[in-house]
Amino acid sequence: MLGKGMKVMRMPAAMKTACAAIVFSVVLVAGNSPALADFEAGWRAYEKGDFATALKNWQSLAENGDARAQFNMGVMYDEGRGVEEDLKAAVDWWSKSAAQGHKQAQTNLGFAYLIGRGVDRDFGTAIKWLKQASNQGVARSQYSLGKMYLSGLGVKADAAEAFKWINLAAKSGIEQAQYNLGKMYRDGAGVGKDIKAAADWFMAAAKQGYAKAQNHIGVRLARGEGIAKDETEALKWLTLAARAGHPQARINRQALMGKVSADIKKKAEALADNFKPMQQ
After folding, report:
1. Model pLDDT, residue 32
2. pTM for this predicted structure
């Protein structure tokens, strides 16, 4: 079973601009093989919060080459669960696991090299591991790899290659990828300019609650750009983005409020109040 205990690590503020919203994720992996009783015992202990026992069960397996146990050891050292936090040890375990093809380990190792967590920053090595994870279908690696190609981090900037990876991540439901794909279609970056496709992808991300996309689709609905004009829907999305703290959305909302009727304002407010983000 994959994906239990997923945690998204916050990137240091100084890295946010350079790395363009690349996401670092840590995912604890549970075993599903009856033969690995110690692995399953470790997982049960972890779920109960008995991290010392989980570590004890996984360590011998990890030392004997079990890639899943190696990955989990890395997570334990990264989070300081059952052991003192040691980022270098986390990277060491992920390196062992990644070398065996473990895709989550490859992802975390790529992000570790990207942001310099437990290891010196190395964009080239980050690209290597993110690409391996991306080729195994890890959507967040695909998105981050695409952003690196778009920004020219550790690799020559290549909009077409960026589009390839961001498109895959967007289709997997990564809202940041959907938003960025919308921008690429809007600007004709790595793909032919297509304002309808841009609006479609902004809408997809907006429905997941992504404020940047909500602002963009609100503007397009107000103008009828790539999508049928609808001032009620436009005001709804701009209201949601403004509530989330998006500064430009507040300006855009205020401008639209000055143009629409009281009835539209009332309906848009009600729609915003009842909005629930879609779950991927």
Report:
1. 53
2. 0.86
